Each structure stands twice: as structure tokens, then as C-alpha cells.
Fold this protein.
Amino acid sequence: MPERSTYKTTTARRAPRDEGFVQDEQVILEGVDISGQWNKMYEPREIVDYDLTHLEELTAIPGAESMGWCYQCAQCIPACPVDTAGGDYGPRKIFRRLQTGMDLFDHQDMWLCTSCQNCVRVCPKEVDMVEIMPAARAQAVLDGRNVPGELLEMFQNVAEYGNPMGESARRRTRWTRKAGVDIRLLPKNPGPVDVLWFVGDYYAFHNRGVDAAQAMARVFSRLGVDFGILGVDERTDGDSQRLAGEPGLFEEVAEHNLEQFGKYEFGKIVVSGPHAYNAIKNEYPRVSHGKTGGDTYPVEHYTQFLAQQVDALAPLLSGSFARKVTFHDPCYLGRHNGEYDAPRRLLEAVPGIEFVEMYRCKAQGYCCGGGGGGMWLDGFAAEHQMERLSENRVKEAVEVGAEVLAVCCPYEVSRFEDAVKSTDNDGKLEVLDIIEILDACMEPIGEGVA
């Protein structure tokens, strides 16, 4: 039987307990002096005396209660796109900072959330950042506490001009002049239509959005869709303003748009963007405005509308699009509203296309960074992240070998085109709205008068 080890300690002197550890000054094991820091034993360091003032201030706000439910499992952290982009972010981190004295209303964390809902997807305690952050931001805006100037300018533009870019409403229909097809302006020609097309701000005003809007008009015309638009009477859908902390402004534009809807007879509303889809489908019914308050209008994103007509659409796609294409799922079409198939059905109908998924797709798809007011916070986010979320996504598209990054959200063309340039991938990856791809594969229909 082997001899038992001999372990001898000299404990005449120890480090003071107020230093947070106990350490034997001398330890001899089997005749060998092994004294040193490896026998240091730390005192328990659990924090038991929290100052929960700021956490309780947050959870007292209606809509933000669930922040107090976090039990710090940290499943949200790898799911958070802001953390992935080097933002040191996520619900669990925010909760921990609140526990240890952070005042969210004076902290950068208030404005970095893009409301992508990926953390909500994985949270076992149903901590809902999509409810928490808009509620907290609304309080911050109301109190005038640390609101980024970029957001304040956007809010002012919406209040004054009805759109976040500060464009005159008279320019909303300028894009129609070169669409090449007749486009019915309902305020000038108010009769029944099958489809009320809610065009949106970026399709109406942004130079690349205009390309997509004109493509949409041509595709609708080739399909024989009976459609009309609100033109100068349309205002922003308001969803981004609500998420960024201006529920009053959201209600104002929602009431206006609901009033316009009530003037016309139509079968359904078709929208260009996921945020308009989310707003009209889920938020507008909550807005009280006289006779139109609470009305629910049948609404579809354009990919849903066209996917239902793919059998009629396919024969019109006579041109080949022989390129390798990947697709970015918009958060507010996918995770928020459960639509993943319609965009893919349209892409799969394109002749010659080679479709490839990115690693993060569908329910696990990444965020472009434009949601939750992020479209107007790029300058702010750049100070607190290592890269833009759109840059992270573009790198992934390039990595899977895509030549084209297809999108179906008006925000994303401009965001991803900027990211292509800033990541030195100009010439390697082209960003196109799905409607542009469909239009490119159709034969020209000749010039018309809009």
C-alpha cells in the first residue's frame, strides 16, 4: 500500500480577510515547499445588496414589465445581432447592468435595439424587448432624456412633412412619370379598385426605392392587376416611429392613413415594405379614429400577393436570370409575421436562377439594422458597435458565394448597397429588390403615360 501524502501547512500568518481571500503563507506537500498563490482561497463574492432603483423604474413602465423576469440564462446574447456586431449587447446584459446601478435612460443601451425579435424567439422567460424598448424610449422622448439628435430630426420630418426624409408630399408621385405604365392616382380618379397599393416612403423618394416602385408598377400592369395609389395623400406608415419612441406621432399618421383608406372602395391593401405590413395588419386596428377606428383591412406584402399568382406570373418571365442569388429575410416579414415562403416562391420561379441560403436564414435570420428606428441611427450605432449589422450580413452573403443579395424591404437596398461598398465588395455583390429581378425577366411593355 503506497504511503499517504503528507500535507503540512503553516497558518500562523494569513492575508487580511478584508482583502477578500485567505492564503496560507507556507504549504509543504510531501516535503516540497509549494507555497504561493495557488493555495489562495477567495471569500464568497455574491452580490446580495442590489440597488434596484433603476430596474424598478423601468419595469414600472407599462409594456416594460418583462425586463424583471430575466433569470440570466444568456440564451439571448448569441442571438442578438447587435452583440454579434461588437455592440456588447442583449437583454441579459442590460438586465445585469440595471441590477448593478445602470440608469437605462442615460445609457447608450436605450437606442441600440433594432427590435428584430431574435432574443424573444429564444427567451424561456418571455422577456420581450419588442415591447420593452419602445415603451422605455417613449418615456425617454416624453421626458427629453438623452434622445439622439438623428431620431429627433426624423421625428420632426414626419411631423412636418409626413415622411422621415423631410420630402414634400407633392413629390410622392414624381416616380410615376417614368414608370412606363399608367398608374391610377385615387385622389384624382376615385373609383373602385381591386388593390390599393400602399407605396411607402422609400419607394416614393429614395433613388433606389424609385427603381423598385417603377418595377412594381410594370409587374402589376403585366399581370393585369387593377390597382391604384393614394399619391400625395399617403403618409409614412408610422411603424418605425412607434418603435423608436413616438407612439403619439405613430397614431397621428395612422389616423391620417386610415381616413384615406376609408375614402375608397378596394378589395385589399398591398404594401411594399414589411414595416407597413406590420403596422396596418397589427397596429392600425388599435388606433381609435371615429368611424375608421379599429377597422381591420385585408393587407398583404407584395411578395405574398404575387406568390399567390405565381402560375400567372411564371409565363411572363421570358428572360433568364442566370446568377447565384441569396435572400435576406426581413425581420418584420419573417420573425414578426411568420412569412418565409412567399419571397422564396417568387425567386424559385425566376428562370435560370441558382438560389442559395445564407447560414442564418428564416427564423434564425440576421437583422439589417434598420428596424426599431435603426434606419436613422447609423451614426449613433457606429460609435458603439465594431461594424454595422448590414456589413456583417453582406460578408455572409459573399461567403456563401452569392452574386446577388435579394431583398424585399425598401430599407434594405440602400443599407446593403452602402455595406457592399464599405466592406470592399463593390463589384462582387449586387443588391436587388425581388421585384426588380421579376421586372428584369419580363419583356418590355413599351412606354405609357402615368
